[in-house]
Amino acid sequence: MRRGRIFFYLAFILILGLAAVLVVYQTILKPKPSTAQLTPTIAPEKVYIVIGGKLAKGHVFSEKDFVGPDGKTEEKVIQAVSWPKEYVSPGMFTEAEKANLLNKQTKMDLDANTPIMESMLVGAGDILYMGGSTWSPNIPTGMLAVSIPVNRLSSVSYAPRPGDHVNLMVTLAFVDLDTDFQSILPNVTGLVIASGPPNPESKQNDPLTVDISTGVFGKTVIDPVLGQAVYVFPIESQRPRVVSQMLLQDAVVLQVGDFPLAGQEAAQAKPQATAAGNQPQPTPTPIPKPETITLIVAPQDAVTLNYLMFNGAQLTLALRNPKDQTRIEINPVTLQFLLDQYRIPVPVKLPYGLHPRVDQPLLPTAQSEAEKK
Q1: Strands 241-256 and 121-123
Q2: Residue 91 belongs to some domain of the structure
Q3: What percentage of the chain carries pLDDT values higher than 70?
Q4: Which 8-state DSSP code applies to residue 291?
């Protein structure tokens, strides 16, 4: 009786163990079907966009440039290729929009297989920016660059560099003109000879004649001692009256000297081969002194400089601190201003003078000092 009860308990425990193993297998150990097997794969939606072959700047699109989707491109300009719809950027041209390319031109060189976008194109009649120099972008909008001639003294001994700030002075020489002839005074005088009585043979009056060999036009003055009228005329040509003034303040230097020509920059940047062994090193080429300087000025100032250069005005630069943005009201300098401002007296006529005679004061040089010895 006891043995039968033991067998009953053992069978019950065995059934519970089998049930537990089945539950664990169903919930944990049994492999689950993959998501790929449960969810069907959906291919991304694609559209056809327009790509180009190797195109040069300024290419104008026409009907002969078009080919069909995935067509050959060896001799074609553009074609339509499939492209994921989610990666189509605004400005791209789809297959249905390729007609919008007609009569448009490329702004830049395009590599092959580059998607064509609206930002890469301009109208066929629009002005195409061709790149230009590397200096023009440094000119502010509304300003111009003008070159003026310089030498050692007029360029602050060649001190300015690109980016420096300078003032510009002008010196002009004025002379008196005859308003009718527009020639320098005084005029040359002439003697008009009247016709006189009729010629006894021809019975006609001789024509008027003019003799212009009499001299320069002068003026009549009364001598204070003799009380006589004396005719005087100049012994030399008219002396010009000189004035200097500050023309521009705080102009920016764009370039000192000539700009390098196209291709010259690359040649200058290319390293020179060094001499091998004991061969003598080549003599370095001396740097030429600049003969021009280019300034950034307002358009009206550019026209003013053009007028002054063509009329022989003397232009002189003065270097200034780039942080100094002040503008100063400056008086023009004439001989009278020089005497009044700096209290320079006009020397009186004395019965004695210095020896040796000096007609033109000059700075002493090494050569002049050696000649005195």
Answers
A1: unpaired
A2: yes
A3: 75
A4: -
Q: Which domain holds residue 190?
A: 177-197+207-232
Considering the domain boundaries, does residue 97 fall inside one? yes
pTM for this prediction: 0.61
> Is 87 within a domain?
yes
The reply to whether 307 falls in a domain is no
Query: Among 299, 291, 293, 305, which Cα is nearest to 253's?
Result: 293
Between CA 58 and CA 177 the distance in angstroms is 57
pLDDT in tens, 97-118: 878 888 888 877 888 888 888 8
Q: What are the residues facing 55 on neighbouring strands?
A: 110
Distance CA 137, CA 142 (A): 12
CB atoms within 10 A of CB 145: 18
CATH of the domain at 112: 3.90.1210
Q: What domain count does the chain have?
A: 3
List, edge to edge, every strand of the sheet that includes 144-149. Answer: 144-149, 292-297, 241-256, 165-174, 314-320
